[in-house]
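Recall that a protein's primary structure is simply its ordered list of amino acids. Everything else, from secondary elements to tertiary packing, is in principle encoded there. The following example makes that idea concrete.
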Amino acid sequence: MRALLSVAGIALGVALGFGVHLMNRAAVEELATAVRALSGDADLEVRGGRSGFDETLYQKLARLPGVAVASPGLELQAAIAGGSGPTQESASRALPSSIRVIGIDSLRSAQLQPALFASDPALRTALLEPDAVLLSAGAARMLGLGKGDDLVLVVGLTRVHLRIAGILAASALRGAAALTDIATAQWRLDRLGTLNRIDLRLAPGAHRDAVQARIAALLPSGVRVQAVVQELQGERIDIIPWSHDIATFVVNALAPAEVAKVVLDEDKERIEVVVPDQQLSLAIGRRGQNVRLASQLTGWDIDILTEQEESERRQAEFENRTKIFVEALNLDEVVGQLLASEGFGSIEELALVDEKEIAGIEGFDADTARELQERAKEYLAQQEAELDDKRKALGVEDALKDVPGVTNKILVALGENGVKTVEDLAGCATDDLTGWTERKDGETKHEPGFLNGLGISREDADAMIMQARLKAGWVTEAELAPPPAEESAEESAQPQA
């Protein structure tokens, strides 16, 4: 009897604790929803891939129970051909070759982002004019353009002229970007009937997880829904709905600095924080105190970039991708820029994507797509042959090629680090392949592994090692199999006769 009473008491305590947890969570979510309703933040965002999704999805989501506001969007990177009326200062320096173009429903978006037109409400109406575009302060400064000038973009093989109707306040839209009405974006960027983003604010009292699950059930392949936790749009966080989320934890730790974006690299336990240019010293703190404290609290390494630095890096990445396509596939620069602006990031992606996706690009047809893929496959085959020759020269045995997950690039990297047989790989630890992170004297230091820079996660590395041990005979299939499910608590709790 005493044992039964003890079990009942424990069960009651657990139930009460869980009930308090649920009530606290509900209260925090309700308070957070109210704050977002005032500040204009979205609760959820629906994102499509490079090809986006049909705009009819917007109507379906806007009518869902629990959704208070839905704002459609179309966001693309477009190549810049030039602009009319550049200042003398901009004419003396190299202009960026692309710009982020954001198409919005100005009426809907204003409910989620009231800061967009707070400094000049007339810009909301100006955005509805044909071919009108608003430049961010950063873009206007970089391009040397002003109100009344033309922003000339390259869409496919066509030049598109957009009229600059005004310049947004520096606090309204961060980075180098062009804002236009969504109808203009769809028409002029050749994306009629297509969206690639929908921002959603939930109604008070709506359960986030339940609404998110209903949305996920309606989404086509390649489209995802997620909570808005990374793009904070420069707003200071005073209330944190999910205190255990690493991104919001870092933002809170860096207060009072404003944060524009947080990017996580979970494999390396590294966080990249983007702040407005004028907020850099505030985010770092005196003698680095802020960022050092945030790193100590989270246990993650933190890199802080300004929006200008991030914009320059994105520009450099765009130019680098263009250069890769031009040189590897012997293309004209305009074609290389077009592939890069469509989101293709590598020769491998171009070779493996559905041919129809390439043929659907403005100015391309099926023959062009076929030719591009043939060139990409020929280039990759040549690269594989060169890597295989290098692998043989390093003395890496053929048997190592048969280990699942091991590619020629990996074989060369392993050979350069003395791993040349199946037994050599089987004897490796995960840290040997991916590297490891340790903290010394309050500083985080990352030691590189053999496969550093190849995009291999710890899970991938561990799987390769275990497959090598299986091939070497060190373990058996039975030992690698997951353990059988344990006897259920209900069965184990039954009294024995």
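The mean pLDDT is 79. The chain has five domains: 1-39, 43-227, 229-334, 346-390, 394-497.
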